[in-house]
């Protein structure tokens, strides 16, 4: 089964919490703090596997989580780091944030392995918070939270040249003749269900990668038929061979077909429609003498517009070599760098903000309510009875913008701030 799309949930590991403990041994009645640090949470890593050519494995399992870090222990013992989770994907897989569609990573070219979500850093144990004035710190730092994300995986095949055309114009026959690919060939009136890749080997080491893009139909750019699902596969190609049935063996007008396919390209992505294109007028073995030459009619229509037209037969091989050498030489004039999609979504920056939801409301004169899951979590881990812990929580309120929000609502010195059953007086 060919699968070129999947939607999955990924989550890195939470950092382990720092530990609060004190050295208690015989003859050492007042030992100092010895709480160990928490371990780092595991990362979510994507890696290219050359043995894969489909995303079918992600259709059966949709949730992938790295291990959390272990909490710190007494006697300054460091918690174990959580194990990373490595997701293997075929080359050409593009990872997108599900809600916005922004690109997180393109697993192509030199990008063979990338950390998508980083595990949380482990919290420091109370051994780090001892000072001359506070020799018995009862505070340890909580581990950083995990990062989580829904992502869409899209496989965009990597080929130099794409074969375009309506179903049953002879693309699969052409591909099987000029490459090492073995597509299923029959008189189908629908379409190939998966892109077929093949390598064109010319003499003296010349050649290129060719992809048979599944047949498009009118309305493909709007999602009609299978066209919209497969248009993504030509986004990496540098140029296209547009195959048409020059013989009109099925009653289709080749000129009309070319205009329809190019119209679908422009609707889907205008930049695609502007890439170099050569027309392969196929099935010339079915054109009989005495008939009006349809190839000349195609040339008269499109060569003035800059499209080179070749008369070929995928069955007999006539004209095929001339077409391939022309395409090979054209590729040399184009940018040789592979088409890589730039990163648009940066989890480290965007999830940091998303991880700190809170609400600040003015309940009545002099009373303000601050709530939010992150705040509740911090209160559960913070020892507000210690000077160090209280200062840590104050910095948290400042860094998250909560203090700024309070001032916007008109908080005054001496006003009461309530957070989950706790009350504080506000002072600058």
From TrEMBL:
Residues 350-428 form the OCT domain. SUPFAM superfamilies: Obg GTP-binding protein C-terminal domain, Obg GTP-binding protein N-terminal domain, P-loop containing nucleoside triphosphate hydrolases. Signal peptide: none annotated. It is an enzyme of class 3 (hydrolase). Its EC number is 3.6.5.-. Residues 159-332 form the OBG-type G domain. Keywords: Cytoplasm, GTP-binding, Hydrolase, Magnesium, Metal-binding, Nucleotide-binding. GO terms for cellular component: cytoplasm. One of its GO terms (molecular function) is GTPase activity. Its cofactor is Mg(2+). Residues 1-158 form the Obg domain. Mg(2+) binds at residues 172, 192. Monomer. Belongs to the TRAFAC class OBG-HflX-like GTPase superfamily. OBG GTPase family. HAMAP family: GTPase_Obg. An essential GTPase which binds GTP, GDP and possibly (p)ppGpp with moderate affinity, with high nucleotide exchange rates and a fairly low GTP hydrolysis rate. Plays a role in control of the cell cycle, stress response, ribosome biogenesis and in those bacteria that undergo differentiation, in morphogenesis control. This is GTPase Obg. It comes from Sellimonas intestinalis. The lineage of its organism: Bacteria, Bacillati, Bacillota, Clostridia, Lachnospirales.
């Amino acid at each position: 089964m060919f699968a070129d799309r999947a939607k999955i949930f990924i989550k890195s590991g939470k950092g382990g919490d720092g530990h609060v403990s004190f050295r208690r041994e015989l003859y050492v009645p007042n030992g100092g703090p010895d709480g160990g640090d928490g371990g780092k949470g595991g990362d979510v890593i994507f890696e290219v596997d050359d043995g894969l050519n489909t995303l079918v494995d992600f259709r059966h399992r949709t949730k992938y989580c790295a291990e959390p870090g272990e909490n710190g222990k007494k006697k300054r013992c460091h918690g174990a780091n959580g194990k990373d989770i490595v997701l293997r994907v075929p080359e050409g897989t593009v990872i997108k944030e599900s809600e916005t569609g922004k690109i997180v990573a393109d697993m192509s070219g030199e990008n063979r392995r990338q950390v998508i979500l980083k595990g949380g850093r482990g919290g420091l144990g109370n051994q780090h918070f001892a000072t001359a004035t506070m020799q018995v710190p009862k505070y340890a730092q909580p581990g950083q939270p995990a990062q989580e994300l829904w992502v869409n995986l899209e496989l965009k095949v990597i080929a130099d040249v794409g074969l375009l055309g309506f179903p049953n114009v002879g693309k699969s026959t052409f591909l099987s003749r000029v490459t090492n690919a073995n597509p299923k060939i029959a008189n189908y009136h629908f379409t190939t269900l998966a892109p077929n890749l093949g390598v064109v080997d010319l003499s003296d080491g010349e050649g290129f990668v060719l992809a048979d893009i599944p047949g498009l139909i009118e309305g493909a750019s709007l999602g009609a038929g299978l066209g919209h699902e497969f248009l993504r596969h030509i986004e990496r190609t540098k140029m296209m061979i547009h195959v048409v049935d020059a013989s009109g063996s099925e009653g289709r007008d080749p000129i009309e077909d070319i205009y329809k396919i190019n119209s679908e390209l422009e609707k889907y992505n205008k930049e695609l429609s502007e890439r170099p294109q050569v027309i392969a007028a196929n099935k010339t073995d079915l054109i009989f003498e005495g008939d009006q030459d349809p190839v000349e009619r195609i040339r008269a229509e499109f060569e003035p517009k800059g499209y080179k037209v070749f008369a070929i037969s995928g069955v007999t091989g006539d004209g095929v070599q001339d077409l391939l050498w022309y395409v090979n030489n054209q590729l040399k004039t184009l940018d040789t760098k592979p088409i890589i999609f730039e990163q648009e979504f940066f989890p480290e920056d965007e999830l940091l903000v998303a991880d700190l939801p809170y609400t600040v409301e003015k309940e009545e004169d002099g009373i303000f309510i601050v709530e939010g899951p992150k705040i509740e979590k911090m209160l559960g881990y913070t020892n507000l009875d210690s000077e160090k812990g209280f200062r840590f929580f104050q910095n948290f309120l400042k860094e998250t913008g909560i203090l700024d929000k309070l001032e916007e609502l008109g908080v005054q010195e001496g006003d009461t701030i309530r957070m989950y059953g706790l009350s504080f007086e506000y002072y600058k």
